[in-house]
Write a structure and sequence with these properties.
The protein is mostly helical and 184 residues long. 66% of the residues lie in helices and 2% in strands. The two termini are 17 Å apart. The chain binds protoporphyrin IX containing FE (2 copies).
């Protein structure tokens, strides 16, 4: 049986960073919903939310550094210009949101003097920021507003990926999912 020919694929580092950040980002939303419910583990969910958030911040900085040295694989030549622009805009906004969310959370906690233990291991450093409850409140307002952008981006992104896979059948999804056979 002929082995399906593979198209280009992202490097292992890019794949790991994409999927670890994607899973952590979705987990952030589940963790905050869990911490909103009354129960004995509320504090645990919140600690995991804060730890996951600063992990996303660190990994996103690493990822942007990696990405600057390793450009994305070009989309297939058949992709219309507006779709290239839409994909690029979505990706840039993803990076912005993945920095703004953890930064506002971290600044808010720092301003309010509310520290947390990173995955229960050590006290995560607070930023030397004053401002108390007022700054914390402002940062949390931004945190709560920007996450709506994250929901929109995830929806657009996943719909775009599914369109490439099932409508265009151009192997774009297989570049990010190593075990998926490229459809050509
Ligand atoms: C089922 C979920 C997901 C699928 C199927 C998926 C699929 C993909 C694919 C196929 C690409 C490569 C696009 C290309 O080659 O032009 C990509 C890139 C990207 N994805 Fe996802 N993704 C998913 C979830 C997420 C999530 C949750 C995030 C953010 C938290 C995310 C952030 C990104 C970013 C920032 C890029 C651009 C990489 C770059 O070129 O710099 N993805 N994704
Ligand atoms: C990508 C990273 C993050 C995402 C996607 C995220 C997502 C969310 C969401 C969806 C909410 C609920 C907002 C609302 O109900 O209006 C929330 C609340 C919150 N987040 Fe984050 N967050 C992230 C990072 C962080 C970090 C790093 C911290 C702190 C170090 C943090 C601390 C908080 C706090 C204190 C709340 C308020 C909880 C409450 O009022 O019950 N978050 N976050």
């Amino acid at each position: 049986m002929a082995v399906a020919e593979r198209g280009p694929r992202y490097s292992t580092v890019s794949l790991i960073l994409h999927w670890v950040i994607a899973v952590l980002a979705v987990a952030q939303i589940l963790l905050i919903s869990a911490s909103d419910q009354e129960g004995p583990n509320q504090g645990l969910w919140m600690m995991l939310h804060k730890s996951g958030g600063v992990t996303i911040l660190i990994l996103t900085l690493v990822r942007i550094g990696w990405r600057l040295k390793h450009p994305a694989i070009p989309l297939p030549a058949t992709t219309p210009r507006w779709q290239r622009l839409a994909a690029r805009t979505t990706h840039v906004l993803f990076y912005a949101v993945l920095l703004i969310m953890p930064l506002t959370g971290w600044i808010a906690g720092s301003a309010a003097g509310r520290g947390f233990e990173y995955y229960g291991l050590f006290d995560f450093p607070l930023l030397p920021i004053g401002g108390g409850r007022e700054t914390a409140g402002l940062m949390m307002d931004i945190h709560g507003a920007v996450v709506k952008g994250l929901y929109v981006l995830i929806a657009l992104h996943v719909l775009g990926a599914l369109k490439h896979q099932f409508v265009n059948r151009d192997g774009v999804l297989a570049r990010m999912i190593p075990f998926l056979p490229a459809r050509r």
